[in-house]
TrEMBL record:
PROSITE patterns: SUSHI. Keywords: Disulfide bond, Membrane, Receptor, Signal, Sushi, Transmembrane, Transmembrane helix. InterPro entries: IL15RA, Sushi/SCR/CCP_sf, Sushi_SCR_CCP_dom. Residues 1-32 form the signal peptide. The keyword Magnesium does not apply. Pfam families: Sushi. Residues 137-194 are annotated as: Disordered. It comes from Odocoileus virginianus (White-tailed deer). Residues 33-97 form the Sushi domain. This is Interleukin-15 receptor subunit alpha isoform X6. Residues 158-167 have a biased composition (Basic and acidic residues). The chain crosses the membrane at residues 105-127.
Length: 194
């Protein structure tokens, strides 16, 4: 019985070695099989140099973005034995904005114009209220009647002198003679010396 075991044990070693060699080199069903285009990652690009099984490629975040810490940009072309399909491993890459959000900067950027606008409106209202209060406290002005709207009549005052107002004289007798005989309308004056 020991002879049989020895014979079988010695013959099994080359078979086992051959099986290990095949596993290390890959499945004989994979020659010529390549991976399709890798999946897209938001805000990242990939330039594939080799689509063959076991090739590795890296995604690169677009300009203005950077790789989030703890995520990987690596993907690898693998062959799924069950589905007999080659595919790229799913990367967990996250590309985030390279510009950090600063809430204080945003607050300052918004609050400064709002403050300027508020101060401008406040000044406008103060000036307007001041003007209105001045108008309310002013005493109404005494309006004088226009000389043109007062009818002018000829006649004599208590002393018997002519009271009509003349443009070129002070109401003397020469002016009165020029306007006698006219009862309506303004007096027309004639130049002196005619």
């Amino acid at each position: 019985m020991s002879r049989r075991l020895r014979g079988r044990g010695a013959g099994a070693l080359p078979t086992l070695g051959l099986l290990l060699l095949l596993l290390l080199l890959g499945s004989p069903a994979t020659p010529g099989i390549t991976c399709p285009t890798p999946t897209s990652v938001e805000h990242a690009d990939i330039r594939v140099k080799n689509y063959s099984i076991n090739s590795r490629e890296r995604y690169v975040c677009n300009s203005g973005f950077k790789r989030k810490a703890g995520t990987s940009s690596l993907t690898q072309c693998v062959f799924n034995e069950t589905a007999k399909v080659a595919h790229w491993t799913t990367p967990n890459l996250k590309c985030i904005s390279a510009y950090q959000y600063n809430p204080r900067a945003v607050t300052a950027a918004v609050s400064i114009p709002v403050t300027v606008l508020f101060v401008a409106c406040l000044l406008f209202l103060l000036v307007r209220c001041r003007l209105r209060s001045r108008q309310a406290h002013q005493t109404p002005g005494v309006e004088m009647e226009s000389m043109e709207s007062v009818p002018m009549t000829t006649g004599a005052d208590a002393r018997g002198e002519d009271t009509e107002i003349h443009l070129h004289g002070l109401g003397g007798s020469g002016d009165a003679e020029a306007t006698r005989g006219r009862s309506e309308g303004p007096a027309l004056l004639q130049p002196e010396g005619t």
